[in-house]
Amino acid sequence: MLKRFSITVDDALLSQFDKLLTNEGYDNRSEAIRDLIRNALVHQEWESDETFTIGTVVLVYDHHKHDLMKKLTDIQHESVNLIVASLHTHLDEHFCQEIIVMRGTVAEMKRVADRLISTSGVKHGQLLPSTTGKRI
Amino acid sequence: MLKRFSITVDDALLSQFDKLLTNEGYDNRSEAIRDLIRNALVHQEWESDETFTIGTVVLVYDHHKHDLMKKLTDIQHESVNLIVASLHTHLDEHFCQEIIVMRGTVAEMKRVADRLISTSGVKHGQLLPSTTGKRI
Amino acid sequence: MLKRFSITVDDALLSQFDKLLTNEGYDNRSEAIRDLIRNALVHQEWESDETFTIGTVVLVYDHHKHDLMKKLTDIQHESVNLIVASLHTHLDEHFCQEIIVMRGTVAEMKRVADRLISTSGVKHGQLLPSTTGKRI
Amino acid sequence: MLKRFSITVDDALLSQFDKLLTNEGYDNRSEAIRDLIRNALVHQEWESDETFTIGTVVLVYDHHKHDLMKKLTDIQHESVNLIVASLHTHLDEHFCQEIIVMRGTVAEMKRVADRLISTSGVKHGQLLPSTTGKRI
């Protein structure tokens, strides 16, 4: 159910905000403000180790590197309850990017992400905090 | 080709670093230091609008929302040269997560990411800076 | 001049937001939303090298280290037009923290901050993006 | 006491890193790598609410605003054990920046920072994680 309420903003600030909205492709202020609110909530969710939510690991690595794909697959299999899906893309003859979607507690996802990212041969890795959409 | 060189670090700092490595699953200092270096380089790459590289957009949205999937697909088709692949996962009866891998300049990827994230009905969206692996 | 306008937010999202507000000490939604808007604008200001604004460098270093204070002072004097003020605090027998307030373009402030932070003996350094308050 | 050890880095990565170092004003690789290590440790320290360390709050506000300075001072006095020092700079006829150095646990500093930043009339506020220098 949608609730409507009014807020007050100084006109100079509002005109700056309206410009930002247009640049970023928003149609209206409500949608943009809802996104700012949701970002703040997702940020807060990830501050607690116990939150059950969604996270995505992005890895870039050289698939020619001996045994690397096997090691990464092994780590994923040991945490099979956390792993939802993965997407593999070929960047060039050497490099691929693997994106792994996880669902679990923040602590569990951080632990698996650390193991994947620290594997020798992984060139770059990051854990992206996301959300189940439920609370927001 | 690998190059070997030596660095000096205060022993108190080194022992803290070794603990961090173990926590995060690294086998050796070289690998961990290489990852710190690569992170600094990817961060720098993304400071310039002209860098040609890889980025990933993660969107969470309610797939029941009228026309939303069509709008998101339309935006992707208009930027078809940027989009490499996408992965769709179902989070529950309502929400899905869509991950879109892009390859292009930082400026182009930011523009498309802004349009996707600002679409009404998208609950949460983020652009994740990545790398082609080539320069690092 | 204050402007009033109304926005619509789903009630589940709104109740989460109200909890967050209370935790962070906000009295009302307007103030919290204005702060979210201002953060987005400051973030955007700092994406352009030419923006004339305010930044703060925080350095932690060992003041016993030979010549370090002199070097840091020299760098500040070479950029005297940028430096507004600085605050020195003693953390313990060895370490001090120095906070340097700068006013200038983003590019100039980043250059001076890089020089200060990279000086040998500086244990930790960061550049904090701030704002003149004018545009927001 | 300094310890020396050697690491191996691919030459392409190393040459990128050497360019970055030069841009940022570093004299040598050791110093740059030590800074990357320290940043990782400070980041980790701040992930635990119990860490006793240093933090800095930066506030921008309009000093004409009725009672604002009094409110901010009151909050600081209630947390007098946390507050080490503060620095006030005048940005123009209206705005000032106040920088407040705190020493305490991460949880305590976050709580006080939230209260200061959420005070009505504060245009922009941030908490900057720092370090006592001891562990790093």
Folded structure, characterized:
The structure is a homotetramer of 136-residue chains. Helix content of chain A is 40%, strand content 35%. With 136 residues, chain A is an alpha+beta fold. The first copy, chain A, folds into 2 domains: 11-45; 52-129, ACT-like. Chain A, domain 2 (Alpha-Beta Plaits). Chain A has a 4-stranded antiparallel sheet with strand order 3-4-2-5. Chains C and D meet through helix 1, helix 2, strand 2, strand 3 and strand 4 of C and helix 1, helix 2, strand 2, strand 3 and strand 4 of D. Strand 1 of chain B pairs antiparallel with strand 1 (2-10) of chain D.
Structural class of chain A: alpha+beta
* CATH T-level topology of the largest domain in chain A: Alpha-Beta Plaits
Query: Would you tell me the overall average pLDDT of chain A?
Result: 91
Main sheet strand line-up of chain A: 3-4-2-5
Reported for the largest beta sheet of chain A, the result is: 4 strands, antiparallel
Largest protein interface, residues of each chain: A-B, 50 and 50 residues
The Cα radius of gyration of chain A reads 20 Å
SSE topology:
The structure is a homotetramer of 136-residue chains.
Chain A: E1 2-10, H1 11-24, H2 29-45, E2 52-62, H3 68-78, E3 83-90, E4 95-105, H4 106-118, E5 122-129
Antiparallel strand pairs in A: 2-4, 2-5, 3-4
List the defining traits of the structure above:
5 strands, four-stranded antiparallel β-sheet, Alpha-Beta Plaits, elongated, 4 helices, 2 domains, homotetramer, alpha+beta, 136 residues
